[in-house]
Amino acid sequence: MKSPLRISMVSFLNTLPFRYALAHNAEIKPLIQLSEDVPSLCAKKLLSGEADIGLVPVAILPEMKTYHIITDFCIGAKKRVDSVFLFSEKPIHELNRVLLDFRSRTSVQLVQILAMNYWNIKPQYVSAEPGYESQISGQTGGVVIGDKALELLDNFPYRYDLAEAWYNYTGEEFVFAAWVSREKLSQAFIEQFNDALAFGIRHLDDAIQAYAHEYPNLPIENYLKNRIDYFWTESKKRALNQFLNQIA
């Protein structure tokens, strides 16, 4: 196994316990080279081989010849997530256009699955560019993810949480991103890496205290403790299979 392993991790607030864990593990730090990126760049790096491991949007998995989900942890939600929304000024059945967040792959696919099979609407989808949030008005809605979604939580009269909609549609939890490697890694490294991430989950309060100053206007504690779910559960595994089958 080559060393250091190049790792691309999502840079949003939801990865805070992972950031804390990897920063405080003296054994794992020499073995990895960590970069923090938006989800779409994490995906690009893993697909191109610029990264060996990525915390990546699960929508990219069909594009990989081989992949390995390597930890017991992920970025997901049991039900409501509060950071992946379809925002709008009008009810969803009055929308004729939806702007798609340029930072995301999974959410872009998810909103289209829900629109077709759950909400029974057929809007026009438009790939958005930075600053597109200001264009959400009238019959144009927009998918917004991550920290930006948390910032805009109270800005729109209609807010459709995509994880909650998925749960209502399927009865399953949803997984947005998983820890994925391009090649099979040694079991020793996988166990060491998994243990490091587990440390971050166990010390979530310490992680919040360490990084809270970076997010002065976000509901950090409620979001990380009551919305994001980090465990790669059987429900999320079923959800992933269903999601991948539908996008296929």
Chain-wise SSE layout:
Layout: E1 5-10, H1 16-23, E2 32-37, H2 39-48, E3 53-57, E4 68-77, E5 84-88, E6 97-100, H3 106-119, E7 124-127, E8 140-145, H4 146-151, E9 158-161, H5 162-170, E10 174-181, H6 187-202, H7 204-211, H8 220-226, E11 228-231, H9 234-247
Parallel strand pairs: 1-2, 1-3, 6-7, 6-8
Antiparallel strand pairs: 3-10, 4-10, 4-11, 5-8, 5-9
Helix pairs in contact: 1-6, 1-7, 3-5
Quickly describe the structure.
This protein has 248 residues and is of the alpha/beta class. Helices cover 37% and strands 25% of the residues.
Describe this structure in words.
Strands 2-1-3-10-4-11 form a 6-stranded mixed β-sheet. It has a 5-stranded mixed β-sheet with strand order 7-6-8-5-9. Strand 1, helix 1 and strand 2 form a beta-alpha-beta unit. The protein has 9 helices and 11 strands. The protein has 248 residues and is an alpha/beta fold. Helices cover 37% and strands 25% of the residues. The longest helix has 16 residues. The protein has 2 domains: 149 residues, Periplasmic binding protein-like II (D-Maltodextrin-Binding Protein, domain 2, 3-Layer(aba) Sandwich); 87 residues, Periplasmic binding protein-like II (D-Maltodextrin-Binding Protein, domain 2, 3-Layer(aba) Sandwich), CATH 3.40.190. Helix 1 crosses helix 7 and helix 3 packs across helix 5. The model has no long low-confidence stretch (mean pLDDT 96). The two termini are 33 Å apart.
